[in-house]
Amino acid sequence: xxxxxxxxxxxxxxxxxxxxxxxxxxxxxxxxxxxxxxxxxxxxxxxxxxxxxxxxxxxxxxxxxxxxxxxxxxxxxxxxxxxxxxxxxxxxxxxxxxxxxxxxxxxxxxxxxxxxxxxxxxxxxxxxxxxxxxxxxxxxxxxxxxxxxxxxxxxxxxxxxxxxxxxxxxxxxxxxxxxxxxxxxxxxxxxxxxxxxxxxxxxxxxxxxxxxxxxxxxxxxxxxxxxxxxxxxxxxxxxxxxxxxxxxxxxxxxxxxxxxxxxxxxxxxxxxxxxxxxxxxxxxxxxxxxxxxxxxxxxxxxxxxxxxxxxxxxxxxxx
Length: 319
Fold this sequence. Notes:
CO_DH_flav_C_dom_sf, Diverse_Substr_Oxidored, globular, alpha+beta, 4-stranded antiparallel beta sheet, FAD-bd_PCMH, 5-stranded antiparallel beta sheet, Xanthine dehydrogenase YagS FAD-binding subunit, FAD binding
């Protein structure tokens, strides 16, 4: 780790007026600093900023410095959000990691984290080692010739399914951006991962009220049961009326360069009966448009099976 200067602003105004890299839980930033992937000269510890609180009622408001474990335990949080958080990292890390930091965490692509290998996300124009290398964990949606790295956040998948927004603050004021628009596909500029502008800070996560999202879940498939990133995951919410699906929300993770919403699956589910056959038919379109790499073709079928599993688990008491 290279030397850096640490300061601790106590107001949002002071934090926004001071150049540097923001530090909250540090569960991503410190790791990358140790690997020399990130080498900030000025680090701003923002843990004393008044960016906490969880409010429910007319939607859900979560302060950016709320810890993952506290959000997961809050009674007003939709099940898919709580479950996505509980299936992330370890209990110790969930106690430290902030929700704002989780949404901004960097990819776990091993080539990105190895400064001895080319990576367009880390060093633009150097090349993508994963395309011709070990790519079992990599994306089948949203990839480009410049980058095939998957997005790492579990809870971002649930938030995307629920049309969540992030509130951003800068010295010039505040703005609110839909999370689905906040993340950027890699294209030719994989180093630009989101719409966060220089000096901007996430202050809140806002989730619109959706009463039937109380019937939701998050299923995560991974190589081991704990402290592992998703090979494939599915955040699913269903509005069930008269034994059929009236509406649905479906987003998936572990397969896209950004959290990946599946509107075609949602449409296929509307009006469907609560049978395995109906769920299989809806999941059959989930991989449309996907493009696999030599080592990750298994994700095409795993994606379908993960969605079916989530639907079956969610409707177990209704069938």
